[in-house]
Design goal:
30% of the residues lie in helices and 26% in strands. Strand 2 and strand 3 form a beta hairpin. By secondary structure, it is of the alpha/beta class. Helix 2 runs parallel beside helix 3. The N terminus is likely disordered. The chain has 4 helices and 7 strands.
């Protein structure tokens, strides 16, 4: 766990590899800027494809041109199972996919964060199976993060 101003990054370790990363903090705490900066830095050094997902086009031009930007609103990705299916399609269509960033993760959901334990379990399995790192931003304070996400925290 790393502290950066109001942003906390949590990681999930699977088989010794860090696969799931969560940026959390209040709305307006700088999560989007941090996740964009992280994506841009990753793209410079990654030996595969980097995708960045958001529910609108507002940050498309802040990303390096090598990052594949996906406006999830264009594909009606709303809900945990639609997101998982969409990610499966991304992995199936690009065997070089190494990193996926999902900004504003809760905007893609049709349920409250406390009801998404199954999603996080399936994201972890997806990440491990395809060896794809997943970075999520969640607009919640540390105190609001459900215990099932805390189980994934790399202390």
């Amino acid at each position: 766990k790393f502290q950066q101003k109001c942003i906390t990054i949590y990681t999930t370790k699977l088989g010794g590899n860090i696969m799931i990363h969560v940026f959390c903090g209040k709305k307006g705490s700088g999560k989007t800027k941090k996740i964009i900066d992280h994506a841009n830095t990753t793209a410079e050094h990654c030996d595969g494809s980097v995708y960045f997902m958001n529910c609108d086009n507002s940050y498309m031009y802040e990303l390096k041109h090598s990052i594949r930007f996906i406006n999830t609103s264009d594909y009606n990705v709303v809900g945990a199972y639609l997101l998982l299916g969409f990610l499966d399609g991304l992995a199936a269509s690009n065997f070089d996919l190494k990193v996926i960033y999902i900004d504003g993760s809760l905007k893609h959901m049709d349920r409250d964060l406390s009801q998404l334990e199954d999603l996080f379990t399936k994201l972890a399995a997806f990440s491990e199976k395809f060896k794809i790192d997943i970075y999520l931003s969640i607009s919640k304070d540390r105190e609001e993060i459900p215990p099932f996400i805390c189980n994934f925290i790399d202390a």
